[in-house]
Each structure stands twice: as C-alpha cells, then as structure tokens.
Amino acid sequence: MAAPLTVYLAGPDVFLPDAIALGERKKQLCARYGFEGLYPLDDTVSAAPGAGPPDRLIYRACVALLRRADFGIVNLTPFRGPSADAGTVYELGMLIGLGKTVFGYTNVTADLLERVQRSDSVTRDTAEPAWRDSDGMLVEDFGNADNLMIDAALAEQGHEIVRIAAPPADRFRDLTGFEACLQRAADHFAGDRAR
Amino acid sequence: MAAPLTVYLAGPDVFLPDAIALGERKKQLCARYGFEGLYPLDDTVSAAPGAGPPDRLIYRACVALLRRADFGIVNLTPFRGPSADAGTVYELGMLIGLGKTVFGYTNVTADLLERVQRSDSVTRDTAEPAWRDSDGMLVEDFGNADNLMIDAALAEQGHEIVRIAAPPADRFRDLTGFEACLQRAADHFAGDRAR
C-alpha cells in the first residue's frame, strides 16, 4: 500500500490555548479520510544555542512542511479583522505558487463587504460605482468570503471556499468545514489513489 | 542593452480612489531605478460576454503578472486591522512559492504586538508565558511588523521589512519605503546587470 497523501493544515488554530489538542483532532480526522495531516506545530523547533532566532526557525519548519505536503487545507475564518489570518493567507499563496491543490473553509458565512460594513463606516460612491471604507479604500463587492485573490485561487482549482455558520464562540474550533474539505479532497484524489 | 528587470507592485494601493495615478508614480520611480513596474491594474480585464466573472478575470491577470515578474515589492502597511492587506499577503506567498526575490515595506513602524494592543484587550499569561487577545488567541511577540511568516519570508532572503513612520493621513500613499525597496533591489541586482 502506498504512503498516504500528506496535507498541510494551515490556520489560526496554532494561536489557540489548546492549539496542540486541536491539531491532534485535525490529524485524527485526516487519518479517517486516508491522509496524513502536517500541523505547523509538529516540528519541534530546536532551542540549541546559535540555531537562530525562534521566529526564523518556526518559519523554516513550516516551509519544510509546506514543501513536503501533497496538498493543503486552509482555515480562512476571519481573524482580527474582516480577513483571514495573515500567516494562513501567506501559506495559501505559497502552496499555490508551489503548484499544489488547496481546499479552504471559513466558519463565518457573511461576505467580505458585509463584514467590513459591520466594523467600519462604508459608503456608496454612486459615480464609480463602488463601496468605500472610512479611509476611502474600495471594498470589493463580488460576494466573496475574502479578498478576491483568496476566493479566486481556490475557485480556479474548481472548489470554492466552504462557508460554515459556526456558533461565534466556537468559530476557531468548529471542524465542520474542515471535514467538508477532507471529503472534497478524498473525492478529488480518488482517481490517483485507484491507480 | 538587455530588457529591464520587471517588478510586481503589490499593495492595497489598488483600492485608493487615485489607484491608477499612484500606480503611475510607482512605475515612474521603478524606471528611475532601471526597472519596469508591473501594476495589478495594468491589464485591462476583458468585458467580453462569456469571458468569466470579473473577479476571476482580475485574478488571472494578476497571476500572469506575478509569473512574469522577475521580483516583487510588497506594501505591507496594515490594512483594516493589525495585519497587511490579505491580497498583498497572498501575492507575497505566491512570489516566494515561485522562487522570486521580494522586498517589502510598511508605512507604520509599530510592532504587531503593539498594534494589537492598541485595538484589542491583550493580556499576559505569565504561566506560558504568552500574550493573548480578547479571543484567547496568542499574539506573537518577536518584534516583527506582522505575522512571523511575512517578516521571516523576507528576512530569509536577507532583507528585513523596511519600516517607515509615514504621517497617518498619508500612510497609503507615502512612497519613502517603496523607494528604499527600489534602492535595495538596485543593489541586489547590480551584479546581474553588470554581466
């Protein structure tokens, strides 16, 4: 039997107080679908003197996992603002640049425009026409979950972002959307596995 | 004489009311340093019937420019929250995944931790120890401008993010940091050009 396909698990999950436990839950779900989950906290960062600054070591460990992964699942739940966690978005871009398949989910269903409207004063410039925030910056109105680069990156691969209405208190831990991504991945790679 | 090196100009600049004019200013500065600037609004998106949804067409045009670019300069000024614009961060990740050199600047000098502290209630968990936001999510404390993946991606290439204390009202238009990146790029590629 061939080794299972590996999947990089990106998301703000790593910032939770129970980050390790959540990673274990995700990896167990991966195994149930026949995949091996690679979680950013998997590789213990060397504390050896002279090894380098800790942030650089964490970066290198994550990049090694990103390169090793056969595909990715990214948690795009809004984080400290209307958009996804910046580290997760960076990893999504890198996975796409490396030519890998990526599946994504968010635990908030509202469009980007709707979320910016909730947190800022957004006005309609009828001349353009366009929505503009309190800094005068355009707010995209494509019905997307986030900046168009994020939604389109996944849509171009044939699978839109999975949007789940998780209970707000559970939005960083609900794994319904994550499991939906695993199911999509299983369907996507079914042909490869049958070979 | 060889064709000039091309540089992808990423940033929330594209959301300004005067986005086109700012892009022209950036491209003129690029030319002064011997580079050809590629601005995300350069390629007019086809409005032909059946060409596809506009966001998908914009994505494809940007990705074509990202692939064509010899290197990138990314504007990492905080946007709608403590982190950089999500579209810009996606493009940074993609450039790195494609193996390209990237220079970055931000027009706000404060660390990520300091900026999160300004916008949220951040508490110190002395047991871990770690800083945690009002959702209990860890706030990185590496002295970085943004999520470590962003700062380290550039630092690993040998050039930290340029941080400029631009006047707040001008933070999306000040090009001091942009020009500092152009100077770094000119120094970086000087050897290639001399060949």
Q: Termini distance of chain A?
A: 11 Å
For the largest interface in this structure, which chains are involved and how many residues does each contribute? A-B, 57 and 57 residues
Oligomer: homodimer
Helix content of chain A: 25-40%
- Biggest sheet details of chain A: 5 strands, parallel
Task: Give an account of the 3D structure.
The structure is a homodimer of 195-residue chains. By secondary structure, chain A is an alpha/beta fold. Chain A is built from seven helices and eight strands; from the N terminus they run βαβαβαβαβββαβαα. Chain A has helices at residues 19-32, 54-68, 86-97, 112-119, 148-155, 176-188, 190-194, and strands at residues 5-10, 35-38, 71-75, 101-106, 123-125, 130-132, 138-139, 162-163. Chain A is globular, with a radius of gyration of 18 Å. The interface between A and B is large, with 57 and 57 residues.
Topology (SSEs and partners):
The structure is a homodimer of 195-residue chains.
Chain A: E1 5-10, H1 19-32, E2 35-38, H2 54-68, E3 71-75, H3 86-97, E4 101-106, H4 112-119, E5 123-125, E6 130-132, E7 138-139, H5 148-155, E8 162-163, H6 176-188, H7 190-194
Parallel strand pairs in A: 1-2, 1-3, 3-4, 4-8
Antiparallel strand pairs in A: 5-6, 6-7
